[in-house]
Structures are given as structure tokens and as C-alpha cells.
Write a structure and sequence with these properties.
Strand order of the largest sheet: 3-2-1-4-5-6-7
Helix content: 40-55%
Order of helices and strands: EHEHEHEHEHEHHE
Strand content: 5-15%
Shape: globular
Number of strands: 7
Largest sheet: 7 strands, parallel
Structural class: alpha/beta
Amino acid sequence: MSGRLAGKVALVTGAGSRGPGIGNGKAAAILFAREGARVLCADQVQARAEETVALIRQEGGEASAFAVDVTHAAECRAMVEAAVSRWGGLDVVHNNVGIESRHGVLETTEEEWDRVMAVDLKSILLTTQAAVPALERRGGGSIICISSVAGLRGYGRTAYAAAKAGVIGFVTSVAVQLGPRGIRVNAIAPGTVWTPMVEDLGPEARERRRQATPLGTEGTAWDVGWGAVYLASDESRWVTGQVLVIDAGLTATAAGGTPQGSPARQS
């Protein structure tokens, strides 16, 4: 631990993993705690949040679990209040909640579209709205929103790609609005990292994803988490309205990423 986040209170949504292993939210929460932050681990499933808290406490960190559905404004307000009540304030908000959709434009149903937009995009609005007063009382802070390379390049997942592109639009707009309040707002766009969310794709898809990147190595949630640590820390004090792409060079390739038909889900 280097203490890069010492004295800070952080809120991580989607801090649990839906299966064995480490997802983006769990990795960020653990790294935040290792760097000295006190972390509210929020997840729709209490047990998942508690698992992350247990890992943090095993390492001597400080964390609490909170069950929340971030598609509801009242629950988002209660989540923020829980962090403030426990630790006296809030400095970092990590909007990590997300679900996937692997359907193209003609296969995407209205119900699926609405669900993906609610979880992947609306949740960021509601959590941010709830958090701004608490961040402002601390003199400012950092809001980090998880997007995806699917929001930057052409992939076959229509609802998911649209939501993740919306995250980037949200970040650039809100960064301008909240800058005068001392609140920085940035996005992270992960590439094809391997996490519990994509385990069902299988070993062949896993290998294709690895080979698609110029580095030819597999990314993990820790790679995304370290990017979040930077954006949460004072090291990024002059960074706002930006998209940090963490993708082993995938979006730098001539094709701009994996073909439309191959698995490209990243979280």
C-alpha cells in the first residue's frame, strides 16, 4: 500500500462479482482499500458485496457492504447517505454497474433495450445526482464511470454499445457542469478483459480475444482497477472529461477491434 487514496471515502457500485473470480468492481474496491480509502461496496446482491468486504478486511482495509438497486433514485440516495453516515463524507464515486446484451439491432427487444439502458446508463445518472451534494461538501471529488471500447468502435451488441457510448456522452457533459464545483468526471473504456461476466464465452473465445490485441496478452479486472485508482487519486487532479482506454491497443488496430461476429464483451 502506498496510500494514494489515504483519507478518502469511496463508493463502488457493482462491487461484487457474479461468479468466482474478480470482476472490475471488486478489483477497484480492493485496490481503493489497499491505497488507503474506506470503501462502501455496493451491489444489488448483498452476499456479493459482503464477499468483497471480507477480502478487504482480510488485508486490514476498511469497508462496508450495501445492497442497492441503482436504477432507483431513492435507493441511490440511501446508498450515498450510508457512506456519509459511516465515514463523514464522500470523495470518490466509481460507477461500475453494468449488464451485457449480445444481440444485434434486429434481435434486440424493447424490454432488453430498456433494461440495458436502465442498468448501464440511467444508474450512472441517478448515482451521480445522489452523490454530488456529498462530494461538494468535501470541496470536490472524483466520479469514475465505466464505459467500454464497444462505445468507441463497431461491435454487434446494439443496446450495450449504445449505452456505453451514452456513458461517454454523459461524462463529457457532466464534467463541464461539475468542474466549477471541484468535481472531476472521467470514464474508463476497458477492452476485452476476462472476468466472471464472460466466463460463459468459453476457452476458444477467450483465446480469440487475447490474440486480437497488439500486446497479445489477456487483460484482467486488475488492469481496469489500477486505472480507476489513478482517476480517484490526486495524481489526476487536472484530468476531467476524459476517456481512459485500457485495451492492450485493441482500438489502435486498423480493424478497430474484433469483428462484429466475435465475442467482445469486456467486463
